[in-house]
C-alpha cells in the first residue's frame, strides 16, 4: 500500500468503522481497535512474527501509523535482538536513552496481500462479534426478572427462538405453556429469568411457565400491585391449567382480592387471556400459617388443621363430601395449595379422622385398664378426660382428678398410687433390659435421658457416653429424604417420631460431648443460652393447634387426643388416589363446583 493509497483510504476507514459500530450497536472505538490489531497481524506476517509491531489509527483523521518497538536492556542481558536493543547501541541513536526505555521505529506503509487481507478481515470480524456478545450480555443481565417482548423467529423441536431486536432468546420446551403453539412472526411475551455466558454468545432464557411471569403480568394490569400497595406474596402454577396466588394489602381500605379481579373481572381476565385460559384462584395471604392454608384450599371447606412446624407438615381434616373438592382433579388443588403455602399438606376425611380417634381412644383405654387394674368404665373416663399416658395420671395435680365428676381425693390418691407402682415396675424392667444390653450407667446420668430412652439407645448399639457424643440429632429423631418417586419419605431414628425434638436431641448430644471431654462446658452453656433466647422471642400465647382452631372459629371444640397422630395415617398418597375411580366421577363434580 503506497503512501498515497493510505491517504486516499483514510475517510473510507472511518466510515466503515462507523457503519459497523452502528449496525452491531457497539462502540466505534472497539471497531477501530480491531482494525489496529488486524494491521499489526498483517505487518508481522510481512516483517516477521518475532517483532513487536504496533499500529495506530487516528479516530479523527483516519491516519494510519505503524511502528516497530524495541526495549533498551543492559548489554549483557539481551535475549531477543528483534524486540530488545543493547544500551550501547541505543546510546548511538539517542544519548538520553536509559535501560527500560522504548525505541520506536516507524515502518513504511505496505500493500496487503490476499492472505494478509483475509486474516485481517477475520481478526476484525472476531473482535466485532466478541464486542457484540459482550454488549448483549451486559444489556440483558440487568433485565433479569422483567417481561420481554419479541417476535417468534423459528420453532425447533418444541423450543421457541425469539427475536428480541438486538439479540435472540429461547423459550425451552419445559418453559412454555403446554398445548400453546407459536408460528414464525408471532408476537410473544415472556419472563426473562436467566442470562448466561456461552462460547457462542450469551444465552437468554425466557419462560411463560415461571410463577413470576404471572406476578409480573398482574403488576402490569393492577396499578395497586405495581405501586406496592398490594403485594403478591406467593404464587403456584400448573401452567396452562390452573394457578393460585396469595395477595395481601398494605392499605386496610383496599381489598386485595377485589383489586386483582377488577371490575367485572377485567383485570384478571387480561392475565388469563395472556396465559391461554389458565384459571387463577386469588387467595388472601395471611401471616398465620393455619389461616393461609385454609384459604389456599379454597373452594373446599376445611374442618380442622393440625400443624407440625418441625416437619413443615400440616394435617387438614375435611368433610367427606368436600374431600374430592379439596383434592381437585388429579390432586391439582392440594398440590397447588402445598406449593403456595410451602407446607406439605396431608388430607384426611372426617370419617377417617374419627376412626383414628376411636382407635387411639381404645388403645389408651386398654393401657389404663392394664396399668391401673381398673375396669373399662373408669379407663374410658380417664381417656375421655384427655389423659394420654400413665405418666400424666401419676404426676398430675390431685385437683385435676377431683374436678372429674364422681372423683374425690381418696379415689384420686388410689389411682395415682397404682399409676406410680406401674411406672416403678416398668422402670425396673427397663433398667434390667438396659443392663442386659450393656448400656453404661453414665449414659443414664445424662440430662434429658431416661431408662426408656436408654433401652432404645442400647437396641441401636449406642452403649456409652462416647457413642451418644458421636451421634447427630437426625440419628435420634429421624429425618426425611427423597423416596423413589421423589416425594420425601420419613426415615425413623432411634426414638419414635415426637418423643424428642431436634433441639432437645442436639442438647443431649452436646452434654454427652462435654461429659466425654470432646468440648468445653462453655460451648454447651452458649448453645443453651441461644436456644433459651430464641424460645423466649418466639413463644406464642397459644399452641399451634389452638391457633389453627381459632382461625377456623372452633377453639376449644377439639380434644387433646388429636394432637399426637400416627405418621403412617397422616400421609395421603395423592398418586394412588388419582388412579381410583372416584377421581374420574367425583373429580368432575368437584371441578364443576370450582
TrEMBL record:
One of its GO terms (molecular function) is RNA binding. Keywords: Cytoplasm, RNA-binding, Transcription, Transcription antitermination, Transcription regulation, Transcription termination. Pfam families: KH_NusA_1st, KH_NusA_2nd, NusA_N, S1. It comes from the Bacteria. InterPro entries: DNA_repair_Rad51/TF_NusA_a-hlx (IPR010995), KH_dom (IPR004087), KH_dom-like_a/b (IPR015946), KH_NusA_2nd (IPR058582), KH_sf_prok-type (IPR009019), NA-bd_OB-fold (IPR012340), NusA_N_sf (IPR036555), S1_domain (IPR003029). PROSITE patterns: KH_TYPE_1, S1. One of its GO terms (cellular component) is cytosol. It is found in: Cytoplasm. GO terms for biological process: DNA-templated transcription termination; transcription antitermination. Its main location: cytoplasm. Transmembrane segments: none annotated. Residues 145-209 form the S1 motif domain. Gene3D superfamilies: 3.30.300.20, 5' to 3' exonuclease, C-terminal subdomain, Nucleic acid-binding proteins, NusA, N-terminal domain. SMART domains: KH, S1. Participates in both transcription termination and antitermination. HAMAP family: NusA_B (MF_00945_B). Monomer. Binds directly to the core enzyme of the DNA-dependent RNA polymerase and to nascent RNA. Belongs to the NusA family. This is Transcription termination/antitermination protein NusA. It comes from Henriciella mobilis.
